[in-house]
Amino acid sequence: MNSLKSLSVFLLPIIIFIAGTGATTTSTPSSSSSSFIPISQWRTSFRNLTAACRNGDSYHGLSSVKFYLNRYGYLEDSESKTYDDLYNDGFRSALMAYQKNFHVKPTGQLDKATLKSMMKPRCGVPDVGGISIIHGRNLFTLFPGSPRWPPTHTSLTYGFSSNGVSITTDVLSAVLARAFQRWASVTSLTFTEVSISANPDVTINFYLGNHNDGYPFDGPMGMLAHAFAPTDGRLHFDAAEYWIGTVANVESPLLTSSNMAIDLESVAVHEIGHIIGLGHTTIRNAIMYPSIAAQVRKVRLTVDDVRGAQSLYG
């Protein structure tokens, strides 16, 4: 995990996304978040936490929210790697940072809007820990140190394994080719599919739960996928999700057949953004926004996404 050595997410200060500041935050999956809590357990705890919280009081289930905020970079690691149910200033500050990034009124309270946001499916890459570049109303982020694929190596290869997912190989190939091409069309990068056994630059796999990268998946409708900063090249999807994909560049009718259906291409485009060096943005319609709802197809790069990619690759 070469990229992880310099990307220790949760040891960095929390810096809130605020227009006009010189730095915001993002990072890659970190070994400090290796604990596994199923998303179903988080949701059970979250639903019981809509009462107003007072400083110094304890609320059953608040520890799950602290774990969530830690996982996504808003709250530093505890020395014991566990969290209590105490509402305090540190928790309130972390919660307000989260609320600002996700366009929820920053009250520092666990209101319904905040908990609803936390229960949405999302990318597993933390929101906190990197560098922001501000262009008017557009804000994109880069990983710490602004890692990129070197100018001498912009013709990248990728390979995938279909193990663990019911989508056929031909559909996976078509979906991934389109997703990579969206970034290639606005940068100097090119992407070519090869066998995963050919040691490609980018490896794509579907895994369940703990898959030994320090960042376990948590079950359906939770953490959808995660990827690592250049030049690591790993992209992992949660095999527990109900993934939908098509050979043709159209929305599948299956996408609206289930309230748990997730569009594979939408998530792939987002994760490839991480593969080339982009972090998360607070622009809601951008590809690099951290969360996406079920039954939604979102594959077109926005100005924010393009400017981010071109800041690295021109």
Structure in words:
- The protein has 314 residues and is of the alpha/beta class.
- The chain has two domains: 29-119, Orthogonal Bundle (Muramoyl-pentapeptide Carboxypeptidase, domain 1); 135-313, Collagenase (Catalytic Domain) (3-Layer(aba) Sandwich), CATH 3.40.390.
- It has helices at residues 2-5, 39-47, 62-71, 89-101, 112-118, 169-184, 264-275, 303-313, and strands spanning 122-123, 131-135, 138-142, 155-160, 190-193, 202-207, 223-227, 234-238, 242-244, 261-263.
- The strands form three sheets. The chain has a six-stranded mixed beta sheet with strand order 1-7-8-6-4-5, with helices on one face. Strands 2-3 form a two-stranded antiparallel sheet.
- The radius of gyration is 19 Å and the shape is globular.
- The two termini are 27 Å apart.
- Zn(2+) 2 binds at residues 123, 270, 274, 280, 288.
- This is Matrix metalloproteinase-9.
- Zn(2+) 1 binds at residues 211, 213, 226, 236.
- Ca(2+) 2 binds at residue 201.
